[in-house]
């Protein structure tokens, strides 16, 4: 008997916390040896850090294929929306799940959208560029990371920021 797999986009809830945490830490293995060694740790994101991010307003959405296989956060900060913590389980990467999540989250806001990621995570930078985002200058990146994110200075030094068309139109 053939059973059709349930595929859907949905807002994550408290019951999903452990799964969201697991997806983030599974997918983050891609960063090992890519990001600065002093920024890599296990787990990549602790449960306390995930709780803190959620308390600060990061709302996670998930893509489900019978179970959650990808998550991406969205957070309104001041006059922009940030896309945060975008991860797809390793076994399902490259199948369009990240693009579906990003497309869905982009529809949830009318504000300009910014995304920060590790400079050496070239696959992530290419993914966002393929989806219409463009890197800002180094000077602008430093200003934006300090204004909209709460991250260590070392992470500011080793990250990039990508902006959507709305942000670029307002900041010509």
On the 0 to 100 scale, the average pLDDT is 95
Query: Tell me, what's the shape?
Result: globular
CATH C-level name: Alpha Beta
Report the total helices.
7
Element-level helix/strand string: EHHEEEHEHEHHEH
End-to-end separation: 57 Å
Global Rg = 16 Å
- Widest β-sheet, arrangement of strands: 1-2-3-4-5-7-6
The third-level CATH topology is Aminopeptidase
The helix/strand class is alpha+beta
Q: Residue ranges: pLDDT <50 for 5 or more in a row?
A: none
The level of helicity is 25-40%
Q: Architecture, CATH level 2? A: 3-Layer(aba) Sandwich
Main sheet record: 7 strands, mixed
CATH-assigned homologous superfamily: Gcn5-related N-acetyltransferase (GNAT)
Q: Beta fraction of the residues?
A: 25-35%
Query: What's the number of structural domains?
Result: 1
- Give the number of DSSP strands: 7
